[in-house]
Amino acid sequence: MPTANAALVDRENLRAGVDAALARHVAGLRETCRAISPDAAPLADAVESMLAGGKRLRAAFCYWSWRAHGGTPGDGREQAVLRAGAALELFQAAALFHDDVMDDSSTRRGRPTAHRVFADDHRAGVRRGEPRRFGDGAAILLGDLALVASDDEMTRALADLPAPVAHIAHAVFADMRTEVTVGQYLDLVAQTMPWGDPQEDERRARDVVRAKSARYSVEHPIVLGAALAGADEAAVAGCRAVGLPLGEAFQLRDDLLGVLGDPSTTGKPTGDDLREGKRTVLVARALARATAAGDAGAVDVLTSGVGDPHLDAAGVATLTELLVRTGAVAEVEQLIDELCTEAFAQIEARDWPEPARSALVDLAHAAVQRAA
Fold first, then answer.
1. CA distances from 334 to 46, 217, 328 (A)
2. Phi and psi angles of residue 369, each rounded to the nearest 5 degrees, phi first
3. SS3 181
4. How do residues 204-220 score in pLDDT, each as one tens digit?
5. pLDDT in tens, 162-204
């Protein structure tokens, strides 16, 4: 999130409240691990490290949507909303632990990923067994711990709310978790498919964008905030109309940063998405343009290079140049603009009061106009 918009997360006790809830969770986990065995202490350290680096973007969308639908700072529901924000952050941590294992990512937010850290510790300790399998297993368990914690935090958030409000909010949270899991599977499936029909390639890529990232990054947090405020069905539908196109634009920006971003800012090596074989809209558009132009050489370079784990810096540079030269980068930028236009038109159509309206507009800009 751009520095100029970081204040949106700091206002009205938002960051402090969410971080306090997360700190309570880490302290409780540390005590539990210590009581079970000293050998379990690294689990709490790894969860704390993952939670420390988040932008709190999802929590901010949830909070300011709550404010937009009648929530008042300091009222009886504020703590519930802040705890719901913490639950969103814990769920994101769970998804990142698991995602890094499935993608075999080496860094996250500029730090070694958990499975790499645990594998290195295994290797340094001259232990028995395969270090990589140990690291992967530990990271999967870390994701499970964060997932359990997110459920616990949401349960506590909803405990004292009116039953109808709690029921709707819990349903939103449950749908989000299911969709992300299904989206993660669709991502795995897409990476196993041979390149073929450009329209089908893009359809798969858009399905992954919506299920795995768009809804859980923006749409569901905005809907959850409205639900916690007791918003009616029409208001919730309006949140979905804002959140889905904005969430898609958010993920498309992420895809561009994965190829063109500065590693010192993104915290990930340039080209990781290409080595991992991510079937993004960006790559699908490049293949479609190269195919339409009859450029068999470009098609061959793209289909053989994307997904090559041994791709070196020169190979990444070649693929990146093709993504630009085919016009795919420009087309994805245009698609981001179109999705943002749709999302901002939907915000304009809502009767959200200030300061929530301006906060959500600024958050929307921060989500898509970012360098990390």
1. 39, 21, 10
2. -110, 70
3. helix
4. 999 999 998 899 999 99
5. 999 999 999 999 999 999 999 999 999 988 888 878 888 899 9
What is the rounded distance in angstroms from the CA atom of residue 157 to the CA atom of residue 82? 8
The CATH architecture annotation of domain 3-368 reads: Orthogonal Bundle (1.10)
Distance CA 55, CA 18 (A): 11
Paired with 331 in beta bridges are none
Please tell me the predicted confidence (pLDDT) of residue 95: 95
CB 114 within 8 A of CB 100: yes
Dist CA 81 CA 225 (whole Å): 7
Residue of 221, 227, 220, 228 lying closest to 179 (CA atoms): 220
Enumerate the H helices of the chain as residue ranges.
7-10, 14-36, 41-52, 57-68, 78-103, 114-124, 131-158, 163-192, 198-208, 220-228, 233-260, 263-266, 272-276, 281-292, 296-305, 313-325, 328-349, 356-368
Ordered DSSP codes for 262-322: -HHHHSS-TTHHHHHT---HHHHHHHHHHHHTT-HHHHHHHHHHTT-TT--HHHHHHHHHH
Mapped onto helix, strand or coil, the DSSP state of residue 216 is helix
Q: Is 108 helix (H, G, I), strand (E, B) or coil?
A: strand
Provide the whole-model pTM. 0.92
pLDDT tens-digit map of 18-41 = 999 999 999 999 999 999 999 999
Tens digits of residue pLDDT in 117-154: 999 999 999 899 999 999 999 999 999 999 999 999 99
**DSSP summary character for residue 39:** G
